[in-house]
Write a structure and sequence with these properties.
InterPro entries: DUF937. By secondary structure, the protein is mainly α. About 75% of the residues lie in helices and about 0% in strands.
């Protein structure tokens, strides 16, 4: 049971996209799905945090319109698997100085090595942006897009972030551990270790 945007995007990645990510990282399908299920709330939560301030919402709204609108998730994944997609640059904007903590936390939560966790975040970042652009702007002329303004974008992402936090579990705990600290010194991921046991054992629902 994931939150609305997370659940929708995870659903779109089922099947061949997750299989391609598995092959790229050298993971089993179940490892990949577990890791993606933990990483997506972190990335969407980080975007919600950034968009909680007017200037952050305006910057994200502009980036989605300028660089990501009209892109298909499948084609973006193909570019990412081929070494494109600018995942590192996107993570720099989304996570700032928290990139290393995010990879470390994702590794702790899912049993991946930090290098694999970092690679996964870099692969998912362009997919998240393409997905958001499609959800926010698709059909806007007909009124069916979710965001016609930076404020509406901030509201949508703020609701997602709140839902992730309320749901808890590995995704919510990872988001809290990475984002809700100042980043001074080492982040304490001890709370994730117990969660990881049930998560890796299939008890994440």
């Amino acid at each position: 049971m994931n939150t609305p945007l997370t659940n929708d995007l995870l659903g779109q990645l089922q099947g061949q996209p997750l299989a391609d990510i598995s092959n790229q990282l050298g993971l089993s399908p179940s490892q990949t799905e577990n890791a993606v299920s933990a990483a997506l709330p972190l990335l969407l939560g980080a975007l919600g945090r950034n968009a909680s301030q007017p200037q952050g919402a305006e910057a994200l709204f502009g980036a989605l319109q300028r660089d990501h609108a009209g892109l298909d998730i499948g084609s973006v994944l193909g570019s990412v698997l081929g070494g494109g997609g600018q995942g590192g640059s996107i993570l720099g904007h989304v996570l700032g100085g928290r990139q290393q903590n995010a990879a470390q936390g994702l590794g702790v939560a899912t049993g991946l090595g930090q290098g694999q966790a970092s690679s996964l975040l870099q692969m998912l970042a362009p997919l998240v942006m393409a997905y958001l652009a499609k959800r926010m702007f698709a059909g806007n002329a007909g009124g069916s897009g979710l965001a016609a303004s930076p404020q509406q974008l901030g509201d949508v992402l703020g609701q997602e972030r709140q839902s992730i936090a309320q749901q808890g579990g590995v995704g919510g705990s990872l988001m809290g551990a990475v984002l809700d600290r100042d980043g001074d010194g080492d982040t304490d991921f001890s709370d994730l270790i117990g969660l990881a046991g049930s998560f890796l054992g299939g008890g994440r629902r």
